[in-house]
Amino acid sequence: MTLKLCTLALALLSSGVASAAEDAWQQARANGRIVNDVLIRADKNMKAWLAYADSKTKLLPDRLPGMIRGRMNSELLYTPHNSGADNYPFLILTAYFTDPELYKGRMVEMLRSEVQYTDVPGGKIPANLDLKTYTLGPPSFFGAGEYCKDGMVPVTEFFGRNRWFYRMADMTEDFMLRAPFKSRWGNLPSDGAELNGDVLQTLARLIPMTGDRRFLHWAEQIGDAYIEEILPRSNYLPTAKYDFDMRAPSEVAWLGDHGNEAIVGLVLLQATETEMGLPRGESYRPVLRKVLDRVIETANPYGFIYRGIRVSDLKITNNYLTDCWGYVYASIYAYYQATGEEKYRQAVLNVLKNLQRYRDYDWTKPSNTVDDLADSIEGAIYLVAHEPVPEAISWIDYSIPKMFPYQSADGTVERWYGDGNWNRTLLLYALMKSQGSYLKGWKPGVELGAVRDGATLRLTVFSPAVWNGQVVLDYARHRRILNLRKDYARLNQWPEWYTVDENTLYAIRNADTGTEELRLGSELTHGYPLRVPAGATCRLEVSPKR
What is the model's pTM? Predict the structure, then answer.
């Protein structure tokens, strides 16, 4: 090749690289606008709900007074399995991102009040509380299980060992000591798949975090009951109930919410046992393979799962597709991560590639609530963090705006505890668009967006007014918080997008000025100070120092 041709080729290559970089900056900037919009909406919903907090206990009712989904509500009841599990935890996280003083004040005050007013005397098990009469109900084991799994687990997955972690650990320990259902494997939480699965999912976090062998032993009692008897007798699908005396399952396996929890919990337990080099990591596999194969074979041709399956002949009993499909497929993917069995990864890729077929599927039916759409998007986000299938990412981007019209002018969404889940999915999406980074000192109008290019992260921060704050980068929380070697796909996680290693040096380059600084990853996880002039966009490149 002549010198002239070489020069031309280099120029074209340089032009292409520059063009790709500019496209990435523009995408990061667009992502920043999305993140800002989402945070404003979530903040508005949170503050609208806090206006209805009980003046004495500071707790939120399950449902607000007035019309809710076509019915008049006059009841003011706090329950740990609803308000505690689905609303409060995501207000905690919303406040952390949008209003730090509220996070450090009101959210902690609510926890304090919850312990004071809802714990049954003599233990840590909560109860329902009538917010009109302040009458406390009996201990709610179901409330404890749901509150830990859907409420305290996601808070712990993000923050680690803080006050909410200790709430979860102590509540689970008390539940373990009082477990009400006697079986030949020991005392179990329940005879139902939902609560047993709830507890397994919580224990799958507590076992590696604490090293407490009692938690491991209890999880194995629950797991053994399913692996040795319940699943083989229910055609390898967990039914709603199981009669231990008659050794008989109920008729239908419910793969929607309130039924798929056992599958999720059992797979996470198997993954934990595998990590710890314990026998059940291997011995559970033949049964779990059959369970996951049953799920796949009863799905529709595109991989989507029906809500109800009759276990005797695997006939569909409910023709609606479950909005929780992503929860189950996250378990299928976690099983692949634990075992390396490629067929289960392919099942996940299949369903993600087919999501575009369901761009306008009405996930809100038959429940007629946006919560089901939020759950469906949530599951997809868990999966694309591991397998960034373009069709699935496009479906998420298309589906998120469908959630917005449900928000009323006052900020609430549907005026029941599911409004917290609405915030949860928006926060998951915001972190996806910022690649896990966030701002300390965010104000409405300050826009942080990001795009990853291999080992490099491109960040843009725009502010309409002078802004001083910090950009915080994510880290391998599965390793640092949960003590797991692998980042298993799992329900109630906050996916890890771009993470920094605490003991690696990173170059922080200002793309506009060309200046460069070095920072340890451990510094970036606490915050990189930044000043943005009014009306300006600051562009930063973050990459490991070679």
Answer: 0.96
